[in-house]
Specification:
CATH topology of the largest domain: Rossmann fold
Bound molecules: the ligand O=P(O)(O)OC[C@H]1O[C@H](O[C@H]2O[C@H](CO)[C@@H](O)[C@H](O)[C@H]2O)[C@H](O)[C@@H](O)[C@@H]1O
Largest sheet: 8 strands, mixed
Structural class: alpha/beta
Distance between the termini: 27 Å
Order of helices and strands: HEHEHEEHEHEEHEEHEHEEH
Strand content: 15-25%
Length: 271
């Protein structure tokens, strides 16, 4: 797989897009403890030194930055609804100037309201956890007894009936609530490519690595563009629009290291 990707990227600018949970950090029971290893941080840091790199997460931007703790990267939180991205002007980009893009900002009061209601509604279900990700909410059931999953989903459904402008999606043992706007990780990827100046460029190779259903929107975008590569992180074969797969975050780390090494060698060879 690596050789195929390296050969596809010859003469092209690789732009790296990385999901966080399950891709850079292993899945753990407590979402607040999903730390990334120092080795992975180093691999991401080196990746960002060699290629434009963005973290695209369901978490809110501040939270995912709190886990990654690296400058020089683009951060897109809340499934791409909270982007601190590069300025469109090359001059400003060089000066490190960034711009905020938040297409769902009008939903903030509604999301806050629903967060409070869900906290109240789910507090009697042991193990249930409601997490706010600024423009989105996550209702976790990883630590809920399987017999109670239906009850929890029903509580969420009842609440959302009153909020038709919000929609429900599913992730890894999590129900995700977000504004029903046409915006997802795929749109965020496209937005970032445009912001980086690669809107209609043939000599760019976006690479997106992710493990969850919301990452499929980004894999689809790449397929539809006929440009770039999706890499799904999964231990088991699953239906996906990604072209390649890695089994777990440690393999993602090895892949990033190899890519950096390959880039260094190609720079050396060209001198
Ligand atoms: O887009 P991502 O960066 O992958 O974020 C998706 C969700 O990830 C987190 O939940 C998942 O990881 C947790 C920690 O390993 C795990 O406990 C949980 O079961 C997983 O669903 C995060 O907590 C969510 O808010 C994100 O939406």
């Amino acid at each position: 797989m690596f050789e195929q990707i390296a050969s596809a990227s010859k003469g092209k600018q690789v732009v790296m897009f990385l999901d966080y949970d399950g891709t850079l950090s292993p899945i753990v029971q407590d979402p607040d403890q999903a730390f990334m290893s120092d080795e992975m941080r180093e691999a991401v840091k080196e990746t960002a030194r060699h290629f434009p790199t963005a973290i695209v997460s369901g978490r809110c931007r501040d939270k995912v930055y709190g886990f990654v703790r690296l400058g020089g990267l683009i951060y897109a939180g809340s499934h791409g609804m909270d982007i601190r991205g590069p300025s469109r002007s090359r001059k400003e980009q060089k000066g490190g100037k960034s711009v905020l893009f938040q297409p769902a900002s009008e939903f903030l009061p509604m999301i806050d309201e629903v967060y409070k209601i869900l906290l109240e509604r789910t507090k009697s279900i042991p193990g249930a956890k409601v997490e706010t990700n600024k423009f989105c909410l996550s209702v976790h059931f990883r630590c809920v007894d399987e017999k109670k999953w239906v009850d929890l989903a029903e509580q969420v459904r009842i609440v959302l009936k009153e909020y038709p402008k919000l929609k429900l999606t599913h992730g890894r043992k999590v129900l995700e609530i977000r504004p029903a706007i046409k915006w997802d990780k795929g749109k965020a990827l496209e937005f970032l490519l445009n912001s980086l100046g690669y809107a209609n460029s043939d000599d760019v190779l976006p690479v997106y690595i992710g493990d969850d259903r919301t990452d499929e929107d980004a894999f689809k975008l790449l397929k539809d563009r006929g440009q770039g590569l999706g890499i799904v992180v999964s231990k088991v074969p699953k239906e996906t629009r990604a072209s390649y797969s890695l089994q777990e975050p440690s393999e993602v780390m090895d892949f990033l290291r190899r890519l950096v090494e390959w880039k260094r060698n190609s720079i050396r060879a060209s001198i």
